Amino acid sequence: MILDHLCKEAIGLTSPAQIQPLQCLKKFGPLARTAFAVMVCLLSSGCAAFREQAHSPDFQPCNDAVVRTRDGWLLGIRHYRPKHPDPSKLPVVLCHGLGLNATFWTITDNHLPAQLTAAGYDVFVYDARGSGNSTPERLAKVNNFLRNTPFPERGERTWTTDDQAYNDIPAVLEYVRKRTGQEQVNWIGHSLGGMLMFTFLEEHPERHRIANFVGMGSTAVVFPTKDSKEMARANAGICLLSKVASTSRIARPMRFGRPPGLAYIDRFYYTRDNVETLTVDRFYGYTLEDPGTGALKQLQPYLGKGQFLSADGKTDYSANLDQIKTPTLFIAGQGDVMADVQSKKWTFDHLSSTDKTFMVFGKSTGYQLNYGHCDLVWAKSAPTEIFPEIIHWLDPRQRTIATPQALPQEMVTDNGRNPYVRLGAPQTSDLPIQLVVGHEQTKLR
After folding, report:
1. Which of 234, 427, 431, 443 could anchor a disulfide with 355, C-beta 3.0 to 4.6 Å?
2. Where does the pLDDT of residue 391 fall: very low under 50, low under 70, confident under 90, or very high at 90 and above?
3. DSSP 8-state symbol, 182
4. Count of H helices and E strands in the chain?
5. DSSP structural state of residue 239
6. Which residues form the domain of 385?
């Protein structure tokens, strides 16, 4: 049944006669089915069109509008509108992590954007550079072609997380301002989508435009563990493979079946017992993207030595966390292998915000599951345990717009590329620091 469902979902087949030739695949194990799917992908054109042909907009590339960045990239963006808008609430921008796209937020039922819009928030998700149909404008035609082949797109080897922070974020904020009239937003980032805020809130002259920041599985340091060493080795391996092939499109057929050995790699992303099988199938079919070798190289010191550095190595974002004054909520998963609780707590402690909250989601803190990295968004119980906590934290910080991080200042550039600025100390918020160590247990500091 699962195989039939996936095939129909992927290619729009509805006739039993059309599905019948695929029944024989059930006689074979997952490894054989995966091999078959990979062969079909490589031998047929348009394998990468699975996402574009998906039956739901939630699984398709963001195509409500195209945002143009100051360095010439085109980013797809999608707007989720509330049925009953609350004019007192600032818009929410959701930013996915590295090697994923915006469907990260919407491949489950009762997803976070749906809960936020039900609470009256305008919600925006976007495909960051290197994901979805986002592309350098000058390479748009060639990348539209390459996207339907197993080969990497042009321009994938040069961009870094600094480019995402300094160019993508301001372009998205400006689009949201034009659509809603709001100068400030609530920013919710998962993994690298939250780490980008460390760069932006420490260095960028428009950092005042982030009213509230929610980081899910985001950390500025990595404490040395066996898992962190393996992530560093995997990072180097992906860099090599990405030079000759699109890692995401090679893996896309694994939505039809996955080899047993893949479970060891999957655990870095999610905990199998916590996530529905259909969510995992959609992850492989719709959400995986090429990480970008430039970004991977920049993150090598982060994985190897624990430091989140700028691409040129001149700025240590993990050492400048005291520059961040923005109201912040940190969401940590007790079972998160990729960003462990200890690393996230260290990052949290070094923020200078007088309004910050740290929440650990795990069995020892009164929740149903020990949440893994992507479980924070994908787990079966996330809609009932995690999403309401995020909204509960955001709501009281909306009617009176949170105190800006700093006032706008002129852009300062480094050879016309990355701005590095130091701004004066901002005003502070009246809301207290909160350290949440369990369900309904809050300590004030």
Report:
1. 431
2. very high
3. -
4. 17, 11
5. H
6. 58-400+431-444
pLDDT at 152: 75
Top pLDDT among 426 and 366 is at 366
Is 360 exposed, middle or buried, given 0-12, 13-18 or 19+ CB atoms closer than 10 A? buried
179-184 CB contacts, 8 Å cutoff, 24+ apart: 179/79, 179/91, 179/122, 179/124, 180/91, 180/122, 182/90, 182/91, 183/209, 184/90, 184/208, 184/209, 184/210, 184/211, 184/401, 184/402, 184/404
Q: How far apart are CA 165 and CA 163, in angstroms?
A: 5
Does residue 423 form part of some domain?
no
Cβ distance 291 to 191 under 8 Å? no
Average confidence (pLDDT) over 433-440: 45
* Number of residues that this document lists for the chain: 445
At 176-201, the pLDDT tens digits run 999 999 999 999 999 999 999 999 99
pLDDT at 428: 34
Q: For 53, phi and psi rounded to 5 degrees?
A: -95, 5
Over the Cα atoms of the chain, what is R_g? 21
Phi and psi angles of residue 428, each rounded to the nearest 5 degrees, phi first: -115, 160
Q: State the pLDDT at residue 103.
A: 96
Residue 7 included in any domain = no
Total domains in the fold of the chain: 1
- Going by pLDDT thresholds of 50, 70 and 90, the confidence category of residue 303 is confident
Antiparallel, parallel or unpaired: β 92-95 and 185-190: parallel
Angle at which helices 262-269 and 226-242 pack, to 10 degrees?
Answer: 110
3-state helix, strand, coil in the chain (%, to 5): 45, 15, 40
- pLDDT by residue (tens digit) across 3-37? 333 333 333 333 333 334 344 444 445 544 444 44
Residue 48 lies in a domain: no
What percent of the chain has pLDDT above 90?
54
Three-state DSSP class for residue 144: helix
| pLDDT at site 97 | 95
Residues contacting residue 224 through CB under 8 Å, at least 6 positions apart? 306
Residue at 15 is within a domain: no
Enclosing H/E stretch for 374: none
Question: Checking phi first, is residue 353 left (phi over 0); if not, alpha (psi -120 to 50) or beta?
Answer: beta
Helices 293-305 and 226-242 meet at what angle, rounded to 10? 160
